[in-house]
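Pasting as-is:
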Amino acid sequence: MPVQHCTLPFGARSVPGGLRAVLAMLLAVVSLTSTGCMTGFREYISNGFKVGPNYQTPGAPVAGNWIDFRDRRIHNDPNVHWAWWRVFNDPILDNLVFTAYQQNLTLREAGFRIQEARARRAIAAGNLFPQFQELYGAYQRRQVSLETGIVAGGGGGGGGIPRAFDLWTTGGQFAWELDFWGRFRRALEAADAELDASIENYDDVLVILLGDVADAYVEVRTAEQRLEYARSNVRYQTGSLNIAKTKEEEGVASRLDVAQAVTNVAQTEAIIPQLEIQLRAAQNRLCVLMGIPPQDLTQLLAGRRGIPKTPVEVSIGIPADLLRRRPDVRRAEREVAAQSARIGIAETDLYPAFTITGNIFVQANQFSDLFRSSAVAGNVGPAFNWNILNYGRLRNAVRVEEARFMAEVTQYQQTVLNANREAENAIVTYLQSQDEARILREGVRAAIESRDLTNELYQGGRADFGRVFFAEYFLVLQQDALAQAEGRIASGLVNLYRALGGGWELRLEGLDPMIMPLPTEAPDVEGIPRPVPLPADEPVPAGPLPAPMEPQPVPARPLDVPPQPQP
């Protein structure tokens, strides 16, 4: 292609000869790698002297409103209380939440990932400066062969050149690849986005942890409620069995009545071991979430019974709030930003790399002579290298990064869709479980009345035991279903707040275990009691976590047909 000519914006005579040569080389490179001095580098200049696209937050599919937005129990108030577990008004749950926040190992692992990302970001920042610096020193005792060298002096010749001599050397050298095309600045952009993503991952783990703790606690209380119903029914059914036995002994009832009563008692008693297993599993889950080996939590959980009560109404904002509230959505967006920067890194390989290298040292035969100005030697100068015969490989490397970028964008959009789905599922579960529980409460009241009436009729000899059998059997089923439905209400509310991304703000309250361990007594905030003391693991590293960054959209270059330089 014809070389494009440009005129220097200053007098050529005012520039030293060596610098003029460097500038001429740069202009030649500009001419070869662009369609024109002004047009080819317009984007390069607008991007802050960096090749590759500037990042812009991608669009994401978001619903205009919730499916159940017309339900009076749903409010679009955007000020969702971040400490959502307090709506249950349960000090034991508050205690479990803060203990798990302090000691959970998965959360601690996510904190160490932030430390790793911080270090990687520091490495990327360091590449903006001379990438290679080295000090060296050496001492050598040399002797030249008489068979290969021309020597004199100690070897028996003239000229004053000794055959054997000492050589002392010390100095330093460096190499600095200039960030002419933005390779290292793009790498720093990617490292910044990866650090943000690690923080969002920490927040996501925290949101999941808080939800898991509350969900396990609800599971414990639900199992306890089901056990209470089962044991109460066993006691009542045992009384019916005794009545049937007495009637059989008196000859006013058949053996069939006793057999049916035994069947009822045995069937209800058989539920208890299964519920004990569920209760133990839920307690063990709580232990692991709190970072301790599984143990009996009966004493810790004592003092409060029943499934946590939930408010009838809830404020959840609008679906678009998920983009800023959910850490996993923000993490996916930050991963897109990091991949966008990697496109620019790949594009820099299409252009020549400019390097300044230098070497300065002192060298002498005598150690005392090292400190003389005459012993100083060295060199410094610019250089460049350019892979001009690898354009097919380099262009395809850029296309690889662009394809990965589009994959990350798609993954981000899929994450938004999944977030919307999870929120909708939690909303419908929360609302419909309330309706289910309301209906079952009516059924339980009727079943209790039916059981009591049939027992009175049976004891008075006005009904057979079959009616008592079915009344007691259906009461067990109704009460167990009611306990599960009430548990689903509480669990549905937990999952709803988790789907909304609530709770990660806890680390912004100055209680982050990656900053410092929680004090012996938790802050007296709205009656939160101190956490239960648990065995501490290894100390966590210090250092505050930066607040999550809000992405700022900037003009982006289309990625479908990226401009390519001409070799």
